[in-house]
Amino acid sequence: MASLFKKKTVDDIIKEQNKELRGTQRQITRDRAALEKQEKQMELEIKKMAKTGNKEACKILAKQLVQLRKQKNRTYAVSSKVTSMSTQTKVMNSQMKMAGAMSTTAKTMQAVNKKMDPQKTLQTMQNFQKENMKMGMTEEMINDTLDEIFDESGDEEESQDIVNQVLDEIGIEISDKMVRAPSAGKNLPSASASKATTISDEEIERQLKALGVD
Q: Per the domain annotation, does 184 fall within a domain?
């Protein structure tokens, strides 16, 4: 029941109108088809009368054929008019929707302009620009300081790497020498060997006399 008393909107009216126009277009198409059928029948009838030699009947049928063809051509004109009306309705609907959207946008802009103070907005933008510049300068100073710290740290690390490399090389040389050098236990003679290899004075004198050296 509520739908019966509901007020129709513009969209509802346009939909109903388009529905009626589509129905009219279908009816025009059916009428044209019927006229074309009558046209073919009348042409056959004229040919039949012509074969029998009935000139008067041919003239009458020919006049009717002319009127029928005019009526058929009118259906094309009416159909074109209906199509134009449907297109025009759609264009008007689009224009109305666009006008409604523009109206809503205008009201929104008006409300925003009332709440927005141009002077305050300009001041806010200037403050933002100033603080943004400060932040940029601070960030640049911090980056420069960090770069100096990291550069110095890098120099120290590089120097330490060089020292470690030299020490490693020396360590390798020392270890090589230690590998090639005989161990103390192997080179030092034992006490028994020392005693065995000690030559007495008497033995030396005996060997000298044997050589003829006094």
A: no
Question: Do residues 28 and 78 touch, judged by C-beta distance below 8 A?
Answer: yes
pLDDT score of 196? 44
Please report whether residue 194 resides in a domain: no
Question: Tokens representing 39?
Answer: 């046209």
Give the single-character DSSP code of 5: S
Q: Would you say residue 211 lies in a domain?
A: no
Q: How far apart are CA 147 and CA 199, in angstroms?
A: 77
- Extract the tokens encoding 37: 């059928």
Residue listed under structure tokens 């019966």: 4
Share of the chain above pLDDT 70, in %: 67
User: Is residue 205 in some structural domain?
Assistant: no
- Range(s) of the domain holding residue 15: 10-146+159-170
Spatial CB neighbours of 189, under 8 Å, sequence gap ≥ 6: 197
Q: What are the residues whose beta carbons fall under 8 Å from the beta carbon of 89, sequence distance 6 or more?
A: 14, 17, 18, 21
Ramachandran sector of residue 212 (left: φ over 0; alpha: ψ -120 to 50; beta: rest): left
Q: C-alpha distances in angstroms, 180 versus 9, 139, 154, 159?
A: 109, 60, 39, 32
pLDDT per residue over 37-90, tens digit each?
A: 999 998 898 888 888 888 888 888 889 899 999 999 999 999 998 888 888 888
Please give the pLDDT value at position 198.
53
Question: What is the amino acid identity at position 207?
Answer: Q
Whether the full predicted model's pTM is greater than 0.90, yes or no, is no
Q: How many domains does the chain have?
A: 1
